[in-house]
Amino acid sequence: MYDHLEIRCPRLGGEVTFAYCQKEGGDLPCPRIIACWQPYFPVETYLRGRLTQPEWDRCFNRPQKDKMATLIELIEKAKRRKQVPDRG
Predict the structure, then answer these.
(1) Which of 30, 33, 60, 68 has the fewest Cβ atoms nearer than 10 Å?
(2) Digitized pLDDT (tens) for each residue of the chain, 88 residues in all
(3) Are 60 and 34 in contact (CB under 8 A)?
């Protein structure tokens, strides 16, 4: 019903369909799907009818990392990549 609708994705910077947003996380919707699509139709009601409670919780009720924790995690990942020798 809504799968064909398109909007500009703030994360990707281009047009995406609602169908894409529903599967952006593999088996789960993009965590931003409600914020992005709510102005166009009652997306939260639609998703609550399609997702199980455990799926909803995995997608929308995850504890948010603060910015400092995210930065530290990104720095650690970059350090690990730099330490891996180039085998090319």
Answers:
(1) 68
(2) 899 999 999 988 999 999 999 998 788 999 999 999 999 999 999 999 999 999 999 999 877 667 787 788 888 888 888 776 656 5
(3) yes
